[in-house]
Amino acid sequence: MMYEHIIQAVQALPWAILPEKLAVIREILALRANGQRLTPEEIRAELEAARAQRGERQIVTGGTAIAVIPVVGTLIPRGNMLMEASGAVSVQQLTARFRAALNDPEVGSIVLDVDSPGGQVGGIEELATEIYQARGQKSIVAVANGLAASAAYWLTSAASELVVTPSGEVGSIGVFAIHEDYSAMLDKVGVKVSLISAGKYKTEGNPFEPLGEEAQAAVQGMVNDYYDMFTRAVARGRGVSQADVIAGFGEGRVVMAEQAVRLGMADRVATIDEVIGGLQKPPQPPRGRRADDSEDRVRRLRALSRQPSPNPSQREGDR
User: What does pTM read for this prediction?
Assistant: First the structure.
């Protein structure tokens, strides 16, 4: 099968993404492996559509600019324009755009316009740390403008403020990897695969035999390490404990806007136009997490975790 090594690499990597989105990506790769390709005209059309949809822009107001950086699509560590046209976001290129806006003296605020199911874990913690450390330099507002799930939530939780649009969703805090075992299928068609290698674990996790206990433990350990990194980063960004993130931030599920605010996963509900309109007013200090309100946030989260989902009258009281 053509591109088999690419498909295996995709399956072997840890992902912080909605499982159903990864299924779509694997299906697209399978079509490509079977010889289905876009024509040059189709590629050009996709690129033009991608540029129009993801157009980075600056909004000038009061002598300063608001840099709006789109984060739309599946996050991958590196990528080219063709991959972006196919619905991917290069974390490498996103990092460069963020740094450029941060270092631009004419930019007073940065808005991350996010609609992403997440993606691969590579480069996410590094960019999240850069966003978090830049809080004191400029106001950095992340807007879950539709969806900020998994790796996308990892990034947005590092911003000075996290806003969710009224119909938006955030969360899906978790990491997973995939192993496919083709051995039974190969037996049926009479194919025997022999792997000739050097190095005890070199062929560990290959798709031509069942996953052994030792190999499964190694993959689980890697997934656990990334999950620990993920939850620690969210705890740092949201000003709560790691235990509160693990137990009280959806436990792998995405949550709607108002519930996200109640749980402390986001700061408020607003459209991106409302966010930009607010930033056009006289500048105010960034709304990063303050050390002195961490205890109040932890107490509120623990109280909420002991209660069922509130009824409408309780929601009004929370506001």
Answer: 0.74
